[in-house]
Amino acid sequence: MKRNFLNYKLLTGIALSMGLMTACSSDDSTNEDPTDPEVPAVDSRWITVAGAKMGTNPGDGNGGTYIYSINSEDAKDPTVSIDPFENGFIAPSNRTARLQSSEDGSTIFNISYAGDTGGNYTKYDVQGGNTFQQLGTDVNISQYVGTAPRWVKLFDGDQTGAAVYVNVAEPTIDDNGTPDDISDDTYVRTDATIGVVTLDLENSLIKNFEEHSVPLSAEEEANGYYFSRIDMPTLNAAGDKLYIGGRLSKVDPTTTESDSDYTILGSKTIVLDYPSLLNPTVITSAVGHGNTNGYRSINAFEYNGSVYQANQSDPEGSHILKIDANNQYDDSYDFNLDDALNVNGAYILAWRPASNGKAVVAYRHDDSVEGVAGAQGFFALVDLNAKTAQKIDAIPYDPDFYLFQYQGFVVDGTEIYLTQGAVGENGNIYIVETETGEVTKGAELVNIEGSHFIGVF
Questions:
Q1: Number of Cβ atoms within 10 Å of the Cβ of 219
Q2: Where is the signal peptide (predicted)?
Q3: What is the mean pLDDT of the chain?
Q4: Structure letter (DSSP) for residue 263
Q5: How would DSSP label each residue in 172-227?
């Protein structure tokens, strides 16, 4: 019989009495000391499932974001059934909320996306089920980065978040001293001004804000290239540089009209001093081409002293790129997902490594079936050290399994939790043991028409 979790007050009380979700097995008949090393201890944490409700079209996620939490033991139990859309907490956001969580899963951070409340930061204490208790006051950052900010939590012990935006100006034209003769005009460049704000997650305060005009090389700018989108700030291992992924667009210098048929340049990252957010520079990969801004999931992670970054829209298929401690791309590190998975046009939609350098990657490729909301997605187990990848066949796939909006994985030791479920269909939590590749089918996720699950936190 499936256990339906409709009210978590009882479980919350039990969890609190255990002391921050740490449970020790005991036997009343023997009066064993739960601190005895011979008594096995079971550590647990909250797993928060997020679902994006349909707005107008299946899979658009514009009907709101619903979250619901269970402990990790129940997340691994396929007899448990939860219904986030019927019983969940609505994360404040006009469109799909941009969620982050603390490393231990006890806190959810949210910045509302678009609408009247766009740019509003809130954080919540996770108490189980649909109980999320707001902590502190709201902070609105829209005056710094607009009402639809792109933001992530930096990996600095849950202390800081960083949000970014880019403002693209009209092309700069030199009239060469003859303002009435447009035939003599010369295209100069398209200026892109970036803004970066850092947010104190602990005290709900603005820490810093800076704006910069970030130029490309003279040749690239003369040919019409400019940064059109930035996202996914990431700290280096030393904590003194902030890397920001970027997407380039292009205008035709002869007409200043948008140019969609152009050579894709080497993948680029903007580097700022941290925490000052000053002295912007741009680094370029000679291995990967295309974008490094990702979409809705964190796109770059520090591991073993370097930052590993996914790219998208690469003509040779997505790569995982490496930025070393010298804050430059390591072009000796060549990890191409097309080659590793034996597919064409691999596109990394979201990914997350564990501390052992093994990661779960959500991806699509050129032969993905077109489903009700977009191209079918898959999961792969990746080894950053060996530069290998293998599709996780133990997870079921469906033509309507849509991962483009996927946001969150939970890392617990060497285990990675994820959600599976086609648009409008029930699914499950799955847990991947990255050391062995073993996959555990966990709790059932109950869906509603046109909606989909966007991860766990």
A1: 8
A2: 1-25
A3: 91
A4: P
A5: EEE-TT-TT-GGG-EEEE--EEEEEEEEETTTTEEEEEEEEE----HHHHHTTEEE
DSSP code at position 291: B
At position 386, the amino acid (one-letter code) is A
Q: pLDDT by residue (tens digit) across 84-94?
A: 999 999 999 98
Whether the bond into 215 is cis, omega within 30 of 0: no
**How confident is the model over 40-86, as pLDDT tens digits?**
345 799 999 999 999 999 999 999 999 999 999 999 999 999 999 99
Q: Are 280 and 270 in contact (CB under 8 A)?
A: yes
pTM, full prediction: 0.90
Element (H, E) at 110: strand 107-111
Q: How far apart are the C-alpha atoms of 379 and 342, rounded to whole Å?
A: 14
Distance in angstroms (rounded) separating the CA atoms of residues 34 and 31: 9
From the list 356, 349, 380, 358, the residue with the least C-alpha distance to 452 is 349
Of 348, 293, 286, 294, give the one whose Cα is nearest residue 318.
Answer: 348
Q: What tokens were used for 392? A: 């996780």
Closest to 273 (Cα-Cα) out of 332, 314, 327, 213? 327
Strands, E assignment, 214-315: 225-235, 241-250, 266-273, 281-289, 300-303, 306-310
Task: Report yes or no: 61 and 405 within 8 Å, Cβ to Cβ.
Answer: yes
Strand stretches in 306-414, DSSP E: 306-310, 319-323, 335-336, 347-353, 358-364, 378-383, 388-391, 410-412
Q: Which residues are CB-neighbours of 142 under 8 A, at least 6 positions away? A: 118, 119, 120, 149
C-beta of residue 199 within 8 angstroms of C-beta of residue 161: yes
CB of 364 closer than 8 Å to CB of 349: yes
Query: How many Cα atoms within 13 Å fall on the side-chain side of residue 57?
Result: 5
Nearest to 233 by CA among 122, 309, 143, 121: 309
- Strands of 335-336's sheet, edge to edge? 300-303, 306-310, 319-323, 335-336
Q: b vs e for 50-59, b when ≥16 Cβ sit within 10 Å of the residue's Cβ?
A: bbbbbbeebb
pLDDT at 1 over 50: no
Within its chain, how far is the Cα of 304 from the centroid?
20
Phi and psi, residue 278, nearest 5° = -105, 175
Look up residue 4 and give its two tokens: 């339906």
Domain ranges in the chain are 97-121+132-295
The answer, yes or no, to whether residue 29 has pLDDT greater than 50, is no
